[in-house]
Amino acid sequence: MTGLDLHKVFRPEKKGLKPPHYKLMTEAQLEEATRKAIEEAKTKLIMPPVLNEREPIDDVLAEDKILEGTETAKYVFTDLSYSIPHRERFIVVREPNGVLRKATWEERDRMIQIFFPKEGRRVIPPTLFKDEKLGTVFQQDRHEDVLNMCIAQFEPDSPDYIRVHHRTYEDIEKHGKYDLLRSTRHFGGMVWYLLSRKKADGLLIDMINRDLLDDATSLITLYHMLHPECQSAKKAKEQKLQGVDLIKVFVKTESQREGYIQLALQAYEEAMATSSAS
Amino acid sequence: CHALTTLMGRGGHVIIRFALGGCTNRPFFRIVAANSRRARDGKYLEQLGCLDPLPNAHGEKVAGLNLERLRYWLGCGAQLSRPAEKLLGLAGFLPLHPMTVTGAERLRRRRQREQQTEAAPADGSAETGTDTGTGTGTGP
């Protein structure tokens, strides 16, 4: 459903200016090159993980009441051994009141970025990810850039990552700008979010309007896999429906915007009829 | 433990201590394994971490310790300087240093004394700044 639009996936990123590079190829070489390009595009379109929010860390290792009042600031100790995965690193904090505790997730992320910097990530997250500023970015239709930056900056199970993603998806759903994310790796995440909250009607209409019937059917199959106890899922399983019938059953039972979807389906069928007739 | 065998002549042992760096009014310590007879900031065998003694914007003093290599050098028979021992005690890698505890108690006693002398200034009478702090054996 993500769609493989080569022009959009390999659209030139804003890098330095270079004159275009022309190659002279035979037919076979051209096919070979396109095949390789498709494979590369598929790797670029792999969906980033969707995880639940992480539990806050709350573990006290030692309490030394004697040390109370000696220090004014807390000490953060990071284990810098090279061959440990970042998730298992020991990062402990000695508070001024003498308590030795494990560091919170935010402290962990900051320390790991200080000592083992990752490209594209800042020690202090940019102000772009605050709720007020996100609105400005959405007005400029730059949802994809925001999501790319979010993936670079935050861990997939951090609350900030989840919040930014949910806000982006909500905004897209409100304005119906589904095409912005089509053929990017964020499309899967958006579909998952909409389906788990049963807000997939706008997306369905968009797909039918663009004549993407296969995508629409796969969307509804996915919906049935997610919510197997709903009416349309049961009917579909009984009657083993395919294609447009599946959509019609779904529309009758589950959707909120029944009228719109019926209209879109009718328009699609008329278009099919005229194109097949001509 | 190759470093121990290449000691020139006789004497000198591996020590883990702080090497001071940074600029004026801006210290920065590197936790370093070096020969004890080297200059404080001179050539060292290996850097095992760092400590920033000034608190950052979040009010924390950041310290990094390469525990894996630290364990190696301690296994080779390296010794620790007192500040290094205190830092590792604070970190929880070693047990808390006794001087840290003693320092904390002394500080507390000094603060108490100051509070008492402040509490009775209007007296005018000699602040018997009772220095009868005959140290009654404060712990091991």
UniProtKB/TrEMBL annotation, chain A:
User: Transmembrane region positions?
Assistant: none
Instruction: Please give the PANTHER family that the UniProt record associates with this protein.
Output: MITOCHONDRIAL 28S RIBOSOMAL PROTEIN S22, SMALL RIBOSOMAL SUBUNIT PROTEIN MS22
The molecular function terms of the Gene Ontology recorded here are: structural constituent of ribosome
Protein name listed in UniProt:
Mitochondrial ribosomal protein S22
| Superkingdom, taxonomy of origin | Eukaryota
Q: Which Pfam families match?
A: MRP-S22 (PF10245)
**What InterPro entries does the database record attribute to this sequence?**
Ribosomal_mS22 (IPR019374)
Q: Which GO terms describe its cellular component?
A: mitochondrial small ribosomal subunit
From TrEMBL, chain B:
One GO term of the biological process aspect: mitochondrial translation
Output the Gene Ontology terms for molecular function: structural constituent of ribosome
Q: Which GO terms describe its cellular component?
A: mitochondrial inner membrane; mitochondrial small ribosomal subunit
Question: Where found, per UniProt?
Answer: Mitochondrion
Q: Where is this region: Disordered?
A: 104-140
Name the InterPro entries for this protein: Ribosomal_bS16, Ribosomal_bS16_dom_sf
What UniProt keywords are attached to this protein's entry?
Answer: Mitochondrion, Ribonucleoprotein, Ribosomal protein
**Which superkingdom does the taxonomy of this entry point to?**
Eukaryota
Query: Hey, which family's this protein in?
Result: Belongs to the bacterial ribosomal protein bS16 family.
Q: Which HAMAP family match?
A: Ribosomal_bS16 (MF_00385)
Q: What is this protein called?
A: Small ribosomal subunit protein bS16m
Task: Provide the taxonomic classification.
Answer: Eukaryota, Metazoa, Chordata, Craniata, Vertebrata
